[in-house]
C-alpha cells in the first residue's frame, strides 16, 4: 500500500496511521476469512473420514478429494495473504516505536454503546474486539481526543479525563453508525415530505375540526371534501326542488335537509378557507358541479318546472364564472 511519495520517517503520524488503519482492516478481514476456511477444511476432512469408514469406495458429490484440495489451497492462500499484510504492518509499527509513540484513538462499538480507547491494549477490551482506527486524531492533544470522544472516552485509557468533557455527547462514530444515522435522517426527511404532501391535501374547517360526511366519517382531502359538498347540496335540492313522495313527515324532511345542507356548508366554508376565497366564490365553484347533475335528476323525475329553473341558473352561473 503506497499512498505517499514520502519515506516512512518523513510521514506524519496521521499519514502513517491512515495506512495502518487500512492495513489492520485488511488483516482483520483476512484473519476472519482464514478462520472460516480452516473450520471448513477441518469439518470437510472429518466428514470424508466418516464417509470412508462407512464405505471406502463411495465418492460423495461434495465431500471428496477435489473439495479437500480446493480448501487446502484456499487456506494456504489466505495464510500467505495474511502474512503479507502482517509484514506490511511491521515497518509502520517499528516507526511508531522509534519515535516514542504518539496519541491515538480507537473506537470500539458494541451493543452497549461504544468507547474510545487510547490503544488496542486496553484491559477493558477483549482480544477479538473490533477496533476502528481514528487516524485523523493521531498525535493530537489528549484533551482534544477526550473532548471529541466525550461520553465515549474510556475511563481506563483516560483516567485523568476531566468530568466536564466526558459528560458531553460524543463526536466520534463508526462508519456503520454514520451510515445508520444518515439512513435515519433520510427516512425522516422522506416522512416529512409525505406528511407535507398529506397536509397540503388536507382540508380542515376554520374551527379546527375535520369535515365529516353524512355517515360520520372524516373527509380530509380536497377531492373528498368537494365530493362531500356536491353530494350534500344535491341531496338537499332533491328534496327542496321536488315533491318528495315518501312516508316521511314534514319534520323528518326538514331535519334531513338541514343535515345535508349543514354538511355541504361546512365543506364549502372549509374549501373557501383552504383556497383563500370567499364562501360565495367557493359556492359558485361547487354549484357549477351540482347544477348539471341536479338538472339531469329533475328531468328524470319529471320535475320540469324546477328543471327549467335550475337550467337557467346553471347558464347564468357559467356566464358569471366565464366573465371572471
Ligand atoms: Zn480503554
Distinct small-molecule ligands in the complex: zinc ion
H and E string: HHEEEHHHEEHHHH
| Spatial separation of the terminal alpha carbons | 75 Å
Query: What structural class should be given to the helix and strand makeup?
Result: mainly alpha
- The beta-strand count equals 5
* Assembly level: single chain
Computed CA radius of gyration, to the nearest angstrom: 39 Å
Q: What is the 3D shape?
A: elongated
How do the strands line up in the largest sheet? 2-1-3
Low-confidence runs of at least 5 consecutive residues? none
Helix content: 55-70%
Total count of helical runs of at least 4 residues: 9
Whole-number average pLDDT?
Answer: 91
- Compute the number of structural domains: 3
Strand content: 5-15%
Largest sheet: 3 strands, antiparallel
If you had to describe this structure to a student in words, what would you say it looks like?
- This protein is mainly alpha-helical.
- It folds into 3 domains: 1-100; 103-185, no CATH class; 211-323, no CATH class.
- It has helices at 13-54, 65-98, 142-149, 163-166, 175-201, 222-240, 250-275, 279-300, 304-323, and strands at 106-110, 113-117, 131-133, 211-212, 218-219.
- Helix 6 crosses helix 8 (279-300), helix 7 (250-275) packs across helix 8 and helix 8 packs antiparallel against helix 9.
- The chain is elongated and about 105 Å long.
- It starts with 12 loop residues before the first helix and ends with a helix.
- Zinc ion binds at residues 117, 122, 124, 154, 156-157.
Amino acid at each position: 500500500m503506497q499512498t505517499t511519495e514520502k519515506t516512512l520517517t518523513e510521514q506524519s503520524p496521521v499519514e502513517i496511521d491512515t495506512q495502518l488503519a487500512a492495513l489492520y482492516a485488511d488483516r482483520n478481514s483476512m484473519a476472519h476469512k482464514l478462520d472460516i476456511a480452516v473450520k471448513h477444511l477441518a469439518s470437510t476432512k472429518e466428514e470424508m473420514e466418516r464417509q470412508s469408514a462407512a464405505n471406502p469406495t463411495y465418492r460423495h458429490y461434495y465431500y471428496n478429494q477435489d473439495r479437500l484440495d480446493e480448501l487446502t489451497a484456499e487456506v494456504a492462500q489466505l495464510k500467505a495473504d495474511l502474512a503479507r499484510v502482517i509484514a506490511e504492518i511491521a515497518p509502520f509499527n517499528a516507526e511508531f516505536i522509534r519515535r516514542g509513540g504518539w496519541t491515538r484513538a480507537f473506537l470500539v462499538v458494541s451493543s452497549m454503546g461504544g468507547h474510545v480507547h487510547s490503544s488496542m491494549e486496553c484491559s477493558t477490551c477483549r482480544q477479538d474486539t473490533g477496533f476502528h482506527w481514528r487516524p485523523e486524531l493521531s498525535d493530537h492533544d489528549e484533551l482534544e481526543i477526550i473532548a471529541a470522544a466525550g461520553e465515549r472516552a474510556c475511563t481506563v485509557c483516560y483516567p485523568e479525563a476531566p468530568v466536564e468533557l466526558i459528560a458531553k455527547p460524543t463526536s466520534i462514530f463508526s462508519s456503520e453508525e454514520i451510515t445508520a444515522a444518515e439512513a435515519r435522517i433520510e427516512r425522516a426527511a422522506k416522512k416529512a415530505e409525505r406528511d407535507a404532501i398529506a397536509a397540503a391535501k388536507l382540508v380542515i374547517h376554520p374551527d379546527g375540526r375535520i369535515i365529516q360526511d353524512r355517515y360520520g366519517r372524516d373527509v380530509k382531502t380536497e377531492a373528498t371534501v368537494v365530493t362531500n359538498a356536491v353530494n350534500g347540496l344535491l341531496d338537499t335540492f332533491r328534496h327542496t326542488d321536488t315533491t318528495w313522495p315518501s312516508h316521511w313527515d314534514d319534520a323528518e324532511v326538514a331535519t334531513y335537509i338541514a343535515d345535508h345542507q349543514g354538511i355541504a356548508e361546512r365543506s364549502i366554508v372549509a374549501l373557501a378557507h383552504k383556497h383563500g376565497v370567499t364562501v360565495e366564490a367557493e359556492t359558485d365553484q361547487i354549484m357549477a358541479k351540482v347544477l348539471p347533475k341536479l338538472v339531469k335528476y329533475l328531468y328524470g323525475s319529471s320535475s320540469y318546472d324546477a328543471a327549467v329553473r335550475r337550467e337557467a341558473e346553471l347558464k347564468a352561473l357559467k356566464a358569471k364564472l366565464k366573465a371572471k
